[in-house]
Hints:
The structure is a homodimer.
Chain A lengths: L5 H9 L7 H12 L7 H13 L3 E6 L7 E6 L1 H12 L11 H9 L4 H31 L5 H32 L1
Antiparallel strand pairs in A: 1-2
Helix pairs in contact in A: 1-3, 2-3, 5-6, 6-7
Chain A binds a DNA duplex through helix 3.
Amino acid sequence: MTKYNHTTYAILGILTTDCRSGYSIKQLIDQSLTHFWKISYGQIYPTLKLLVEDGLATITTSVQQGKPDRNEYELTEKGKQTLRQWLEQPIEQIPVERNEVLLKLFFGSHQSKQHSIQIVEDYKQKLEARLQTYLGIEQTIKSYPTQQEDVKFWLITLDYGKRTTVAGIEWCSHTLESIRD
Amino acid sequence: MTKYNHTTYAILGILTTDCRSGYSIKQLIDQSLTHFWKISYGQIYPTLKLLVEDGLATITTSVQQGKPDRNEYELTEKGKQTLRQWLEQPIEQIPVERNEVLLKLFFGSHQSKQHSIQIVEDYKQKLEARLQTYLGIEQTIKSYPTQQEDVKFWLITLDYGKRTTVAGIEWCSHTLESIRD
DNA sequence: TCGCCCATGTAAGTTGTTACATGATTCG
DNA sequence: CGAATCATGTAACAACTTACATGGGCGA
């Protein structure tokens, strides 16, 4: 079976939900996956084309009233199989997360403490802001009365974001002390 | 002043240390920065060329006995300034860390619990293995009697790795419970 | 009328990896 | 003798972003 890249599988996965067009795929990503996955139109539309070419999806143009036509995609059996096969496989390896702050800190340590401190303090602020965003989203989700399965998942991803962000903030505090010594 | 990409600044930074050739830059990265920054030869050599073209570094070929010639690069004043200016700037934004596990979990939740559990358990194992690696490196570093500034930095980056990894492991445990319910 | 939402798409550029070519020396 | 280390480099490909083109409908 042909191998595809992560982006293709992501789109394949989204097509199992109610999102059937390039535009709504982008919307779903920006609303629900944005904390850990982003895709631009420049990837979405060519990928959808590929899916049809490879027989993983079919395309239907639906005419709407008051809105432009939309191309709706639907997974074929082959598409569903390809997705399933990917889902069942554990990830190959944890990717290396590039961290610009650590990079600056390394070279900055050869310069002045002041700048290193500034870099870490700024990073801490950004992380704190992100945490606040997560907490805000969490409240919004929890205030909705809907008891869907999706809600459970959103909370799980938010939890991931919260935990790693908090860990980052704590590292900042600790590092600031360590630099000041 | 011209803007360069992160990789270029990383190399600029490494040139402030004892590493002066493409080969030794690669070595330094693979030994010290590998947990949060990777660069391949395919980037290093063209970038070094660019640095010379832009007057940020000078090149000298040094003849060695019993070893091939090596091209040694040295930062010019302009190069040092460019680096300093980058170092002093706080990072623009925290990049989105792509997480394949969260992605699989999202689509997996529409399928069977069993697979979701497997994915998370596998991820947990990988994180635990990574944590062990970090702890091993930490011991190695600490056992060296050298009291360099670099050692302090290595411990700081390791600390970052440890904290975020532990946070990830805890998330796995929590998520596994949550899925099983 | 202005700007936003809906909707599809592409071209150019950036960034990065992988795989290859080349070749001397040293160590077991 | 074979493998590893030292050393430089490139070409092809993969992945992704940004910016642009196009255009109708709708609400303020």
